[in-house]
Amino acid sequence: MTATLWQIPVSHFSEKARWALDLKGIEHERRSPPPPSHIPIALWLTRGAGHTFPVLVLDGRAIGDSSAIIAALEELAPEPPLYPSDREERRRALEIESWFDAELGPYARSLVFHELRDSPGGFADFASPMLPGPVRKSRAARSAGGLMAKTYTQVRWRVAGAEAGERARSQVLLALDRLERELEHGDGTYLVGGRFSVADLTAASLFAPVVQPPEGPEVAVEVPPSLEAFRASIAERPGYRWVEETFRRDRGDARRP
Ligand SMILES: N[C@@H](CCC(=O)N[C@@H](CS)C(=O)NCC(=O)O)C(=O)O
């Protein structure tokens, strides 16, 4: 079996797929072409079905979308399971996955991009790890990469302006409320069924851009000072601490070479 994960190192949706692959111990190669080249590559890999990363190619079959990737991995390598065996618990875990995919993922990303716009190192620092090695130290290449990232994130996700920042912050708070409700409903450690599942993996991964756990995505974002204030305002909340704790306890070897 051959497996190649087409991914973005800093991305939280890619983190979902990396975490599942690592947890199940599936040998794979990681390919990380710099954005926005990933869009035509995703379209090419999936024959037009999807334009986002991650895409997992398993024995020549391309699977786009992090949730579909986890479903395929669950079939390929059922142990350790990410889907609860109990039907009702599985339904709940999958509902939590799709809720956080839709209600948190895009907004956690927009919040970081919104705050990066006015931060000192800004998009140049953010984009430089994605530049090809030989030009990474060139000031001109860094600032061109930063400008491209700033333009792309605005055209694609409209992250500029106070309203966009407000919307992103309020969605992150909404997701934190939901996470804390789920934790009260469960055993306080795991969201469903008293053991680690796709629900925990998804909620923790998608909060990573805000919480920035040290075990998180392969490349960390330099946190903009204005985001720091927002993070500080929620850092003592049980949901925030749960994300840190879940990464510490359950993520394991995230930053493999
Ligand atoms: N629903 C998708 C979302 C993935 C996603 O939004 N990926 C971003 C990177 S974080 C992307 O490739 N976006 C390209 C675009 O939308 O232009 C998943 O779960 O995989």
Mean of pLDDT: 93
Largest sheet: 4 strands, mixed
Provide the CATH top-level class of the largest domain.
Answer: Mainly Alpha
CATH topology of the largest domain: Glutathione S-transferase Yfyf (Class Pi), Chain A, domain 2
| Helix amount | 55-70%
Number of strands: 4
Derived from helix and strand composition plus strand pairing, the structural class reads mainly alpha
Radius of gyration: 18 Å
Beta-strand residue fraction: 5-15%
Which molecules are bound besides the chains?
A: glutathione
Task: Write structural notes for this entry.
The chain has a four-stranded mixed sheet with strand order 2-1-3-4, with helices on both faces. It folds into two domains: 3-76, Glutaredoxin; 87-251, Glutathione S-transferase Yfyf (Class Pi), Chain A, domain 2 (Up-down Bundle). The chain has helices spanning 12-23, 38-45, 66-76, 87-103, 105-116, 122-127, 139-157, 162-185, 198-211, 225-234, 238-251, and strands at 3-6, 29-31, 55-58, 61-64. By secondary structure, the protein is mainly α. The model has no long low-confidence stretch (mean pLDDT 93). It contains eleven helices and four strands. Glutathione binds next to α2 and α3.
